[in-house]
Structure formats: structure tokens, C-alpha cells
């Protein structure tokens, strides 16, 4: 029972992290109609920046904040130098260009930080387990991730639904030409949204960094998961991304935690331990395929253009 | 139909001649490396050409095309591991399984359009990737070593470098000829018509998705053949063949060379793989150059290399 609670929380934590990544992706995708494969690279850069700045400053919080700023800046520069010329182009061109960026970032990271992964140690106050319900302890750091992600999700919701900028963002998602015609500086809005997406990806990366090792290619697997989430949720829909992210996070974690034992009942031990991770990874793609076959526009399609 | 003499066709003709004469060059200079490199290039050119059939002519942006490389490869590898070494069984099975796989994926994926199609094909390829890494009997994550190449009863010896190269080249030319015939047939014209205006084709009575699906299956089958060749070339097949970045590589080759031109993918494969090889010789960090080059090509060279050549004549 405790194990189930713990794994559910892990699933929630992973799902919220995925949401941070997917939110940026779905905003950029939904509003600018831009497929950004390099989003995973921004996630990776967030983690590398955090590992560097934390070692530099000696403070986890300060390092994380610096890393967040650095990713934001990187996103804005990237948008300004290269990506803004690709808006309105074919999706395929965007896929190719951002695929090139992945190659670039992977090797740039290898050049700067070396091929071996980095570790981002946690400060002692974050490593203590916290008693959440009597008898159940949960790592403080994971609770922190859950809290931060929930706060960011709430802020994002408030910004998008309750502020003028959010109104422009939503207007941009439903009709780009029209808000341009109304005299809104669409270029600036797009740069802003892209920077926001980059910062969210960086935040996800730097928060995940202490749990996994910081390594090259860490953004690629998770990028595909984020794409799966926005496709399941409906492109451009933050609410859809939120629900789909939780769904995917929990399915993935629970599958990894409990499938091996379940499979061991029908298969031999060795076969079960190789088949289980494969099957739990597949579950997500299966889910996406089913959703797309039944509802080709995702579960919560954003307003029609 | 006599091909016109213009820059793209001249380049294509020169290229074919160079590919045919390459083993001679390799034998004269004793440069074996170039032959092994180009064997790989020819195989990837076949895979890219098959992707071009659906992407360039059919307008179907599949981001999971590497899955067929894996399916074809695993068909050969698994049969070899089970003691069936005859190519006369292995290869037809590889083609049939690839076709079946493409039929299932195509039938489901073609319900979606645009970005959703890109994503759903990607999802299916990733599923195939995870299935392969779950096959503990056949190596799982580590992949499957093929101890003996496909046996064609003495007709052709796949372990001979030159014979294998020419087999790959024959497959490539055969594949290109097939694609050329398809594209210029009534069927191909319907598929291209559907790409440019689906509603209109529906309105004049063509069942658009049926044509699309057949095209999708043909492309998958050709790529399955490339997979069987690739498995024989490396004597090894692993899930990594199907990873999404591999599908990305194939897409890059097609777009680099020029989507919707017959020889574009061949040129794309040559440039991409040679560039990768050259860069890796003087720097470990080839991506730092290759990545921005891709970006620049997208920004400034629309229509790929073939597009540039086509414009050259008019300029």
C-alpha cells in the first residue's frame, strides 16, 4: 500500500515535470505553429547550466535561478537569430532545422562539458525524507518539485487566462493574422512566448537534474514524451497538456514499478525483467495511437483556426 | 519518355556512372574504406528514396520510417538466429513483414493529417523500438549479431565486398526505377494529385486514402529491403536502427537532396553521410558544424541540392 502511494507520488512528480516541458512546447506549437524539436535541447541546457552554476556559486537555489535565467536568455537568442525566420514555413522545414540544432547542442555540450555526465548534488536540507502521512516518508526534494511545478502551473494558468499578455497569447493561438492586424507587435509576442517556453524547459531540466545524471541526449527521450503529451492533450491546449502529462507520468511510473512483478507471474524471471520496461515504455505510445485513432485532434483540441 | 538534358539530370547520370565504377577505383587504389563507406551510403540512399516516395510525392510526412529498416533487419537477424540462413526465405519474409507492418501503421495513421501524422508515425516507430529492446531472446537492448550473411545458394556471395556492393547498387537502381515508374503511372499521378488537393481528388471520385495507403505500403516494403541489406552489411541489428533520430537522419537526407526529385535522396544520402564521415575525421564534434549547415540549408536552399541545380539553369 505504501509502495503504491509512493509510486503514485513519483508518477505525479514525473507528470508535473513533463507538464513543464509540454506547456512550453504546446504554447510554441499552438501559437506560432512551430514544431520545435530543439525543445529537448533547452531542457538539457537547463540541467547543464544548473550543474555548472550550482558548483560555481555553492548555492543550490542561486545556481538554479541563474540557470533559469541562462536558459531564458538562450531561448530568446535562439529565436532571434534563427528560428523566427522559420515561422510560416512548412512543418518539415522546421523539423529539419531544429533537428540540426539538436546535433549542434549535443556536440557543443560534449565539447564544453566533456562526454561524461555531470552530477548535481542536493544540499543536505533537501535530502531528508519527510513524513507525509503517518508511516509514509517521501524525499523532500521530490515534494519540492511537486510544489514548484504546481505553483508554476497555477501561475501559467493565471497569466494565460487572466492577464492582457495571456489574452494576446490566446488570441494569437486562434488567429494570428487578426491580432497582427489589430496592431499587436506579434514578433515581440512570439519572442516572449518562445522565451517562456525555453525557461519552462530549462526549469524542468534543472529540477530533474539531481534525480538523474546530467548527460548528453537526456532531452531526446523526454522530448518525444512531451510531444506525445501535447498530441494527446490537443495541440495548443494547456489544460489538455496538464491532464495528459499527469496521465502519462503516472502510467509510465506505475508501469515501470509494478509491471515486472505482474509479468513475472506469467513469464520467466529473465524474460519478464527485459520485457517489462519495454512494455511500460510502449504503453504511452499505445495510448497516443489509440487517442489519435479515436480522436484525431487530441482530447482537448484548442479552438479551431 | 526521354529525360531532358539539364543540370539535375546530368548530375544524376554522372552520379550513377561514378557509383557503378566505384569498386574499380577501390580495387585500383587499394582503398577499401571508400567501398565500405559507399556500401552503407547506397543502402541508406535506398531507404531515403523510399521515404521520398511518400514524403516528396505523396505528401505524407512520416517521422517513423527507420522502423522498416529495423523490421527488415530483424526479420533477417531472427531467421538467421533460428538457423534459417537461406536468403531465398529471409528476404521475402523481410519484405512481407515490412509490408504488413506498413499496412497496419498506414491504415491507422492515415486517419490523421499534418503534424498529427508526423507524431503518430513517430509513435509507432518508437513502439517498434521498444518491442525490439524487449526481445530478450534476440539480444534485447544490446542487439543481435548475425553470424552468417544471407545465403543465396552460391548464386551470389554476400561476404564478398564487391559482390555485396553491386547487390546493394542493383537494389538501389531497381528501387529508383520502380519509384520512377510508379510516380509516372496513373496511380502515381493520383497520389500526387491527392497531395496537392485532396478534396478535389475525392470529388472527382478517387478514394484518396486507399491510394495513399498503397503508396505507404510500397515505400515501407522498399525500406524493409534496405533494412535486410543493412543487417547483412553490419552483420548486426539492434533497436538503435529504429530510434527516432535515425528516422530524422532519413528525413534530412531526403530534404537535403531535394524532396520530390528522383535522385534527390541519393544525393542527400551521399552528402550527409560523407560530410558526417569527413567531419568525424578531423573533429570529434561533427554536430557543431553539421547542425548549423542543416539550419542554413533550410533557411537558404529551399528544395535541397536538386532544387539549387534546377534553379542554376534558369539563372
Please provide a brief summary of the model:
Chain A: Belongs to the binding-protein-dependent transport system permease family. LivHM subfamily. The complex is a heterodimer of chains A (305) and B (315). Chain A has 305 residues and is an all-alpha fold.
Keywords:
heterodimer, A: 305 residues, mainly alpha, two-stranded antiparallel ribbon, B: mainly alpha, branched-chain amino acid transmembrane transporter activity (chain B)
Provide the fold topology.
The complex is a heterodimer of chains A (305) and B (315).
Chain A: H1 2-32, H2 39-57, H3 60-81, H4 91-113, E1 129-133, E2 136-139, H5 140-162, H6 164-174, H7 176-181, H8 186-208, H9 218-233, H10 238-264, H11 269-294
Chain B: H1 7-29, H2 32-57, H3 66-81, H4 87-109, H5 114-134, E1 144-145, H6 161-184, H7 186-196, H8 198-203, H9 208-234, E2 236-237, H10 244-257, H11 264-282, H12 287-300, H13 304-314
Antiparallel strand pairs in B: 1-2
Helix pairs in contact in B: 1-2, 2-6, 2-9, 2-10, 2-11, 3-4, 3-5, 3-9, 4-9, 6-7, 6-9, 7-9, 10-11, 10-13
For the record, the count of structural domains of chain A works out to 1
Shape of chain B: globular
Strand and helix order of chain A: HHHHEEHHHHHHH
Strand ordering within the main sheet of chain A: 1-2
Low-confidence parts of chain B lasting 5 or more residues at pLDDT below 50?
A: none
Mean pLDDT of chain A equals: 86
Largest sheet of chain B: 2 strands, antiparallel
Quote the beta fraction of chain A: under 5%
Output the structural class of chain B: mainly alpha
Topology, number of strands of chain A: 2
Q: What is the helical fraction of chain A, as a range of percent?
A: over 70%
Order of helices and strands of chain B: HHHHHEHHHHEHHHH
CATH topology of chain A: ABC transporter involved in vitamin B12 uptake, BtuC
Main sheet specs of chain A = 2 strands, antiparallel
Structural class of chain A: mainly alpha
Runs of chain A in which pLDDT lies below 50 for 5 or more consecutive residues are none
**Helix segment tally of chain A:** 11
Amino acid at each position: 500500500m505504501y509502495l503504491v502511494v509512493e509510486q503514485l507520488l513519483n508518477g505525479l512528480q514525473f507528470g508535473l515535470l513533463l507538464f513543464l516541458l509540454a506547456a512550453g512546447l504546446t504554447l510554441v506549437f499552438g501559437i506560432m505553429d512551430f514544431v520545435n524539436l530543439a525543445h529537448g535541447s533547452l531542457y538539457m541546457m537547463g540541467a547543464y547550466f544548473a550543474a555548472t552554476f550550482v558548483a560555481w556559486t555553492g548555492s543550490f537555489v542561486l545556481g538554479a535561478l541563474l540557470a533559469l535565467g541562462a536558459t531564458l536568455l538562450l531561448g530568446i537568442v535562439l529565436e532571434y537569430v534563427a528560428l523566427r525566420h522559420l515561422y510560416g514555413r512548412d512543418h518539415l522545414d522546421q523539423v529539419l532545422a531544429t533537428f540540426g540544432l539538436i546535433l549542434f547542442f549535443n556536440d557543443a555540450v560534449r565539447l564544453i562539458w566533456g562526454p561524461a555526465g555531470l552530477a548535481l548534488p542536493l544540499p543536505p536540507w533537501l535530502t531528508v525524507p519527510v513524513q507525509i502521512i503517518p508511516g509514509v516518508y517521501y524525499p523532500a526534494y521530490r515534494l519540492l518539485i511537486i510544489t514548484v511545478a504546481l505553483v508554476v502551473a497555477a501561475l501559467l494558468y493565471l497569466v494565460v487566462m487572466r492577464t492582457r499578455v495571456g489574452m494576446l497569447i490566446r488570441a494569437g493561438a486562434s488567429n494570428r493574422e487578426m491580432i497582427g492586424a489589430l496592431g499587436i507587435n506579434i514578433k515581440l509576442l512570439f519572442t516572449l512566448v518562445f522565451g517562456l517556453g525555453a525557461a519552462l524547459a530549462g526549469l524542468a531540466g534543472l529540477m530533474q537534474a539531481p534525480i538523474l545524471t546530467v548527460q548528453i541526449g537526456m532531452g531526446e527521450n523526454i522530448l518525444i514524451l512531451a510531444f506525445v503529451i501535447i498530441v494527446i492533450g490537443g495541440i495548443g491546449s494547456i489544460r489538455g497538456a496538464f491532464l495528459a502529462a499527469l496521465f502519462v507520468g503516472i502510467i509510465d511510473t506505475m508501469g515501470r514499478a509494478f509491471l515486472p512483478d505482474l509479468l513475472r507471474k506469467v513469464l520467466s524471471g529473465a524474460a519478464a525483467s527485459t520485457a517489462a520496461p519495454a512494455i511500460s515504455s510502449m504503453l504511452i505510445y499505445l495510448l497516443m495511437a489509440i487517442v489519435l485513432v479515436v480522436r484525431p485532434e487530441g482530447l482537448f483540441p484548442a479552438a479551431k483556426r | 519518355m526521354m529525360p531532358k538534358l539539364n543540370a539535375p539530370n546530368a548530375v544524376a547520370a554522372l552520379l550513377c556512372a561514378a557509383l557503378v565504377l566505384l569498386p574499380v577505383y577501390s580495387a585500383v587504389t587499394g582503398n577499401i574504406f571508400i567501398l565500405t563507406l559507399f556500401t552503407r551510403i547506397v543502402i541508406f540512399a535506398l531507404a531515403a528514396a523510399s521515404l521520398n516516395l511518400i514524403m516528396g510525392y505523396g505528401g505524407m510526412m512520416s517521422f517513423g520510417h527507420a522502423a522498416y529498416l529495423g523490421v527488415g533487419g530483424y526479420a533477417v537477424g531472427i531467421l538467421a538466429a533460428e538457423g534459417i540462413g537461406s536468403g531465398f526465405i529471409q528476404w521475402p519474409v523481410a519484405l512481407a513483414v515490412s509490408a504488413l507492418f506498413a499496412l497496419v501503421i498506414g491504415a491507422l495513421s492515415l486517419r490523421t493529417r499534418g503534424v498529427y501524422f508526423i507524431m503518430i508515425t513517430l509513435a509507432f516507430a518508437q513502439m517498434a523500438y521498444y518491442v525490439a529492446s524487449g526481445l530478450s531472446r534476440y539480444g534485447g537492448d544490446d542487439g543481435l549479431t548475425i553470424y552468417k550473411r544471407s545465403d543465396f545458394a552460391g548464386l551470389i556471395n554476400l561476404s564478398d565486398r564487391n559482390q555485396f556492393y553491386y547487390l546493394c547498387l542493383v537494389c538501389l537502381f531497381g528501387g529508383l526505377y520502380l519509384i520512377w515508374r510508379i510516380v509516372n503511372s496513373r496511380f502515381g499521378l493520383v497520389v500526387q494529385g491527392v497531395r496537392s488537393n485532396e478534396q478535389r481528388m475525392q470529388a472527382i471520385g478517387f478514394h484518396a486514402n486507399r491510394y495513399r495507403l498503397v503508396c505507404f505500403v510500397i515505400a515501407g516494403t522498399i525500406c524493409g529491403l534496405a533494412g535486410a541489406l543493412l543487417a547483412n552489411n553490419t552483420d548486426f541489428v539492434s533497436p538503435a536502427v529504429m530510434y527516432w533520430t535515425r528516422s530524422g537522419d532519413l528525413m534530412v537526407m531526403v530534404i537535403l537532396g531535394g524532396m520530390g526529385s528522383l535522385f534527390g535522396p541519393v544525393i542527400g544520402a551521399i552528402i550527409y553521410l560523407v560530410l558526417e564521415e569527413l567531419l568525424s575525421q578531423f573533429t570529434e564534434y561533427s554536430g557543431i558544424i553539421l547542425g548549423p549547415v542543416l539550419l542554413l540549408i533550410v533557411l537558404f536552399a529551399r528544395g535541397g541540392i536538386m532544387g539549387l541545380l534546377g534553379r542554376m539553369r534558369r539563372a
